[in-house]
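re: that chain from earlier
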Amino acid sequence: MMEAATGHQKLRLFTGLYLSQEVRRDVADISAALSEGIEGIRWVPKENLHVTLKFLGSCDQSLTKDLVETMRKATDYLPLTLTVGGVGAFPSLGSARVIWVGASDFEGRVDKVYNVLEKGAAKCGFPKEKRPYRPHITIGRARKEPITITPEVAGRFDQELPLEIDEILLFSSQLTSTGTEYTVLERIGRVRPKEQL
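^ sequence. v structure.
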């Protein structure tokens, strides 16, 4: 991922959460271990790993101001802590098209962040997501046909790590000849109270 400003153009946007170095390393290790025994998957590069909040799709850059304001409102529910761990897949382990590492929030604060972003995106004209939000880190996508991951294989990766979140990022996504490139357009944060540091 890289950070940059852009000119007036159509952008493919999403909001998401950055990973700490420790969590990024751990998730990349899980991805590498799985890749040794599973074929037919396009694995996400380590530098592209993140937690998606709201995928927006193609839109005009002029909307970014409104999106950033919505992100600012969503930081009312920061900071929060996610628990990262466990391997799953969409739609299921037995028919996996997307392989992910879970990211749970037992206090439900990430759901509140998502709801603010969802409502703000709807006001900007983006369609509402029909499926319930489930925070996760995508590590791989099936190239063609869905694949099967046994519960035994998935169960080998049950270690959990805390992920402290105090900012929301706006990313642009661009397909290049070498893969997908993410650019951080905005970072909107909320500082932890001193007693929590």
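The chain has one domain: 2-196.
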